[in-house]
Design goal:
Distance between the termini: 67 Å
Helix content: 55-70%
CATH class of the largest domain: Mainly Alpha
Strand order of the largest sheet: 7-6-5-8-9-11-10-12
Strand content: 5-15%
Structural class: alpha/beta
Largest sheet: 8 strands, mixed
Number of helices: 25
């Protein structure tokens, strides 16, 4: 057999540039089409998270199929046949260009539209997305056969792929979306896809002309090695855990730390950055450092982010979570790259990676919400990542060593469980317990070289801490649905006379969606954003003389506080996307607004824009939109087309009210721009209570009408400080073709 150094004689930089540019372009197109096509479907199916989750499952499934195709083609056919087969696939994919939805597409009006959505995605972008998905492993496999001096280890090219993904991820919300509408985005993507196909053809030409194929194939066949099941399983878990950890962290920080728009970009950026680093030539030096740093950062991470998070500002807590996440995935991905196979099994390696990523996404999106009532998959994957540290396979191979490493954590779990269930009132011991837990956290560092002990001990501390915080939070009810984590908590306030009084509060993640005082004299009083002294109380009082027979529609139920403004002759319709919110607000054990005040109220479950579209025109006297206070603002409810539809459903003298209280976004700018362009009149009040009152909070509302005369009762009333909407000259109008969250950040 010829020595490999005699075979791989080509040292030209142009080959590396060509193949790297192809991978870079492919990854960039992949990370642009995902958010782009999600936005295309948004006005058609509404803003349900099910739309985004179904799209993500589709993307991960096609990615896996693309990797499977690359694996089969490269393993069963010669290089020349691979080129011919792939050329046919590329030609067929051009049938899907230019990108767009099929003509006269109509979503189903009944049942779950997930399968319909999957089919539409397949018809619209399935073929080009499949080609893009095949590029990574196939082009690297081709590079391994072109006779370059680096062909024996082409994994470094994966850096170019992840750099492309990273730049596309950051450029879409901050560069493409703010400046280019969806129609032009589709055109530019199609042009980029054409450029990618030309690059693939150039790579194929290099492979076709290569004079080393036979020699390399012969050399590879003589050095053939089989992969063991344990090796494949090790790759699988090393890729599965970071994928699940990514989604788990994203859910956790938006649920329990801060509801900040586009916060999901940071974990995903770190995730892609880890691949850039570990597939680079510096991984051999960086990986041991990551392994050493992980248990060091684990100490303050568990001590403060789980045991005592209240002492830290939210941004420091967020930083600890992100740092611990980055080190965990760096260790996992570093181990993955350290155990990468020869080029003979390159496509198998990437196939297992893609399959693990798909499983991680499916687990977090479809399994975890149905088996956990909070984001418990996140701490579970923190422990799993610790179990994947170097040395764990050796420990498990030696059963006695594994048992010895697990003995101390298991003993601690048994003792902790006995103590936990034997104490009725934890409040008296909370400070002492906090100190004891932090001391135990410090002890974990002593087991940094024993991965099983480190993982189980950390898991026991996190589980015990989360259970303790659950008891101390006075959570009456907590459940998780497809739409997030909902919790009803009992707290104590001081009433007007300075006496303690119990209240119930409804939380969706970190965002409070309603509260109710429980005493008989106060249980019918709307609170928080809907208080009597606030803008909603002022509106109903200003129109008290003409509202006796109003037909009122409300988007966003919350605890149901608004229904206590209802009069006997009025008809109310509440639109709520999450069935669990309806169940909680309708249950007198938690809130009694609806049971006491909502006798003439009808519930509509589903996306508001789709539900309102089915209503007859000129139905409502008042339409209230209350869906913009969290981090995931449904932008499709704020476009010019949406406002035109709202006014179509209102009577000529109807009122349109928007609740726009938001810690991070200036939604008033979007509404002011619409009022100017669509020639509506609007009033704004940024309400601040003049004196401290129980559960009466700062809140911002906009009320709009077709005619300024309709708003006159509110304008001339002395009930509050209503002002004309401020002019906004620097904002591009929001439409179904264009929205830009970044432009309205505070």
């Amino acid at each position: 057999m010829n020595d490999s150094s005699d075979i791989k004689t080509d040292r030209s930089l142009s080959l590396i540039v060509l193949f790297a540019l192809t991978l870079f372009t492919s990854a960039s197109l992949m990370f642009v089409i995902q958010p782009m096509f999600g936005k295309i479907l948004l006005p058609l199916l509404g803003g349900s998270p099910a739309v985004w989750n179904t799209c993500m499952v589709f993307y991960q499934t096609i990615l896996f199929l693309g990797y499977f195709y690359a694996h089969v083609v490269s393993m069963r056919f010669s290089q020349h046949k691979q080129i011919l087969i792939h050329a046919v696939v590329i030609l067929v994919s051009f049938l899907a260009l230019p990108l767009g939805l099929p003509d006269n597409v109509i979503p189903p009006t009944e049942g779950n539209p997930a399968f319909w959505l999957f089919w539409i995605l397949l018809l619209a972008i399935g073929l080009p997305f499949f080609v893009v998905s095949t590029t990574g492993p196939l082009i690297q496999k081709w590079f391994a056969s072109v006779g370059h001096h680096t062909s024996d280890d082409p994994y470094f090219l994966y850096v170019a792929s992840n750099v492309g993904s990273l730049l596309a991820l950051l450029s879409y919300p901050f560069l493409l979306e703010p400046n280019i509408g969806l129609a032009n985005q589709k055109t530019l993507w199609s042009v980029g896809y054409g450029a990618l196909c030309l690059l693939i053809i150039a790579c194929a030409f290099v492979l076709w002309k290569s004079q080393q194929n036979a020699l390399i194939s012969e050399a590879a066949s003589e050095d053939k090695q089989e992969l063991s099941f344990t090796t494949r399983l090790h790759w699988l878990v090393l890729a599965f855990v970071p994928s699940s950890l990514l989604l788990g962290l994203t859910n956790f920080i938006s649920t329990d730390i801060a509801s900040v728009p586009l916060l999901w970009i940071i974990p995903l950026t770190l995730y892609l950055l880890s691949f850039v680093i570990v597939f680079s030539k510096w991984n051999d030096k960086i990986h041991p450092l990551m392994v050493q740093l992980q248990p060091i950062v684990l100490l303050p991470f568990i001590a403060y982010s789980f045991i005592n998070p209240a002492v830290l500002p939210y941004w420091v807590d967020l930083g600890l979570h992100l740092l611990a996440f980055f080190l965990a995935i760096m260790v996992c991905h570093g181990e993955l790259v350290k155990n990468r196979p020869s080029t003979q099994h390159l496509t198998t390696f990437y196939l297992i990676m893609s399959f693990a990523g798909m499983l991680g996404g499916m687990f977090n999106s479809f399994v975890a919400p149905f088996i956990f009532n909070a984001v418990y998959e996140y701490p579970l994957m923190i422990v799993a990542a610790l179990l994947l540290r170097p040395g764990v396979r050796t420990a498990f191979a030696d059963g006695k060593q594994a048992l010895l490493q697990a003995a101390f954590p298991l003993l601690l779990i048994v003792v902790g469980a006995v103590v936990f269930f034997s104490i009725e009132d934890w409040s008296a011991y909370f400070d002492s317990l906090g100190v004891a837990l932090i001391l135990l956290v410090g002890l974990t560092y002593a087991f940094r070289n024993q991965p099983i002990t480190l993982a189980l001990l950390s898991g026991a501390l996190i589980a015990f801490t989360m259970a303790l915080h659950g008891l101390m939070s006075n959570t009456l009810y907590q459940e998780r649905t497809f739409f997030g984590v909902l919790a009803v908590r009992e707290s104590v306030i001081m009433d007007e006379q300075g006496h303690p009084e119990k209240v119930h509060e409804l939380f969706h993640g970190t965002t409070k969606h309603g509260a109710q005082r429980l005493t008989a004299e106060n249980s019918r009083t709307p609170l928080t954003y809907y208080s009597v002294p606030g803008p909603m109380g002022q509106l109903f009082k200003a129109y008290d003389g003409v509202s006796q027979n109003w037909n009122v529609g409300v988007v966003g139920l919350g605890a149901g506080a608004l229904t206590c403004y209802a009069k006997e002759g009025q008809t109310w319709t509440q639109y709520e996307i999450d069935p669990l919110v309806v169940a909680i607000a309708s249950d007198p054990k938690y809130f009694t607004y609806i049971s006491q005040c909502g006798k003439n109220t009808t519930m509509r479950v589903g996306d508001a824009r789709l539900s309102l579209l089915k209503e007859p025109d000129a139905k409502f006297d008042l339409l209230v939109l209350d869906a913009f206070s969290s981090d995931s603002v449904p932008t499709h409810l704020l476009t010019q087309e949406a406002l035109a539809m709202y006014f179509k459903k209102l009577k000529p003298n109807g009122l349109l009210a928007f609740h726009i209280t938001n810690r991070h976004l200036e939604i008033k700018r979007v509404l002011a721009d619409h009022a100017k362009n669509l020639h509506f009149d609007g009033l704004l009040q940024e309400f601040k209570p003049k004196q401290e009152m129980p559960l009466v909070v700062d809140t911002d509302w906009v009320v709009m009408a077709k005619d300024s005369a309709t708003l006159e009762p509110l304008r001339v009333s002395s009930l509050g400080s209503w002002q004309k909407l401020p002019l906004s000259f620097d904002l591009k109008p929001w439409t179904d073709d264009f929205t830009n969250i970044v432009s309205i950040w505070r």
